[in-house]
Design goal:
alpha/beta, TIM Barrel, Immunoglobulin-like, 2 domains, eight-stranded parallel sheet, eight-stranded antiparallel sheet, 11 helices, 21% helix, globular, disordered N terminus, binds S-adenosylmethionine, binds iron/sulfur cluster
Length: 453
């Protein structure tokens, strides 16, 4: 219990034994104003409705009988709904964390649109459109009432996330929704998950400096032939152009752009994965994430067992598992790095890009090393809090300026928040250099690194 208290930094009243789910930290609103119990299996449970009426009040939602039932169930270590058994967000090992009662919301997730022109076979959108009540586009008047109420009641929000089950930018009033968010929460980060099948300058570009901060653009493949096998009716050139225009030197207000590449059986060749990374660098994209999925068309070549073997050639690229895996991973935040040269003029550069523990017990660390050609490095060794944890051979003939290294080994998270990682670089049995990295594993770091979807 003490561990949970120190990790969350919350007061003890809000933390008790039981069960947990982020539903007491977030708010999800669908295009028709419905407030469901998050966007996984809980979507089948209605918690309330957002309305534009002047007397509508967010606290009447957060303290209604259904929210109270969630709180009471978690405190008793029970699942509030039968749907929780399959929900990606339930965490049976965590104590209850009710940030809403402390007036803090980590994520307000809005579905601006249930409409979309694409027909991705794994997407539930078409089925939902048959059964859900309209409208399929969020009305600015409802959004304005929600945000004015959150603001009046003194809630802080860490992130606004526009996604849901359709295509956000298909809402013709998408820009108006963003402007309303800017009006009430000008300092809060805003992120959009889009398929990018839009013209950037005539849509988002019109917002100028008021555009959202981050665009996660779903483009599963580099070539039209592989891309359209999943993104049916989609146009890969248009989606790539969307990212290019967003990051163009002619755009005075470029957002952060992250390419989300889901690994299917049609797009998992090393050639295409490496090509996508080169393309991302060419377009000025900030990050590219390769994501595993659980749908039938998933990649067989790369799975949760070996995804650390993906051919990563750039430090803007990284590998992710699905929501299920991610919501159960603990990620470290790098607090500091101290490089030390052992061999004179080694000109070594050692970087760690990612360090995390998965609930399955797998520990994963990866990064990049380089040094000057006269003492070409051939081995990386790692120590965690002084204990050796593994060695990785690297190719001394490699002409790459950066050599990727990756260690994935069974070693469950031991609960210790502060960790020291030493990465040593060797050549011909001699040590060239090492770097010490201080990591902190906190809930906050965890949620920031988790894909917001
Ligand atoms: C329903 S989409 C809505 C946002 C937008 N239309 C898009 O496709 O990015 C929400 C998220 O689901 C992801 N997604 C779609 N099909 C998926 C699949 N088969 N497996 C995992 N994620 C998937 C998308 O990449 C996106 O991040
Ligand atoms: S682009 Fe997004 S919303 Fe549209 S069908 Fe594909 S996954 Fe669903």
């Amino acid at each position: 219990m003490e561990f949970a208290q120190s990790i969350n930094g919350s007061d003890s009243a809000a933390i008790q034994a039981g069960m947990n789910c982020e539903i007491l930290d977030i708010l999800y609103i669908r295009s028709n104003g419905e407030i469901p119990c998050n966007c996984s299996f809980g979507e089948q449970v209605n918690l309330d409705w957002a309305k534009s009426d002047a007397d509508w009040d967010i606290d009447k939602v957060f303290y209604n009988s259904r929210f109270q039932h969630i709180r009471d169930s978690f405190k008793n270590g029970e699942m509030p709904w039968k749907e929780c058994a399959d929900c990606a967000f339930l965490n049976k090992d965590e104590p209850v964390r009710d940030l809403i009662s402390q007036k803090r919301i980590t994520k307000v997730h809005l579905e601006p649109s249930l409409a979309c022109k694409l027909r991705c076979p794994g997407c539930s959108r078409v089925d939902q459109a048959k059964t859900r009540l309209s409208p399929f586009f969020m009305e600015p008047a409802i959004w304005e009432r929600v945000l004015s109420s959150l603001s009046e009641k003194g809630y802080s929000v860490d992130l606004f996330f526009y996604c849901g089950q359709g295509e956000p930018i298909n809402n013709p009033k998408f820009n108006e929704l963003v402007q309303i968010t800017n009006k009430y929460f000008p300092d809060t980060e805003q992120a959009v998950n889009t398929n990018g099948n839009h013209d950037y300058p005539s849509t988002i570009g019109r917002l100028g400096k008021d555009r959202p901060d981050l665009f996660i653009v779903s483009i599963d493949g580099l070539y039209q032939e592989s891309y359209e096998k999943y993104r049916v009716r989609g146009n890969v050139e248009q989606a790539l152009k969307f990212m290019e225009d967003a990051k163009s030197p002619d755009n005075p207000h470029p957002p952060v752009v992250e390419w989300k590449y889901i690994l299917f059986k049609y797009n998992d060749s090393d050639e295409e994965i490496i090509g996508a990374q080169r393309k991302a660098l060419e377009l000025g994209v900030d990050r590219i994430q390769f994501v595993l999925t659980h749908t039938p068309e998933k990649s067989r070549k790369y799975t949760v067992e070996n995804y650390h073997e993906l051919p990563i050639i750039s430090d803007i690229a990284y590998a992710q598992t699905t929501v299920q895996g991610l919501s159960h991973s603990i990620r470290g935040e790098q607090k500091s790095a101290q490089p030390q040269e052992i061999a004179p003029n080694a000109n070594a550069n050692i970087r760690v890009a990612n360090f995390f523990f998965m609930k399955s017990g797998l520990m994963s660390i990866y990064g990049f090393v380089s040094n000057n050609a006269t003492t070409a490095a051939d081995r990386v060794s790692l120590e965690l809090n002084g204990d050796p944890i593994g060695e990785i051979e690297i190719d001394p003939e490699s002409k790459k300026t950066d050599n990727f290294f990756s260690l994935a080994t069974q070693r469950p998270f031991d609960g210790e928040r502060h960790k020291n990682l030493r990465v040593r670089l060797h050549a011909n049995g001699q040590e060239l250099a090492y770097s010490d990295f201080q990591y902190e594993f906190t809930d906050e770091a965890n949620s920031r690194n988790v894909n917001p979807y």
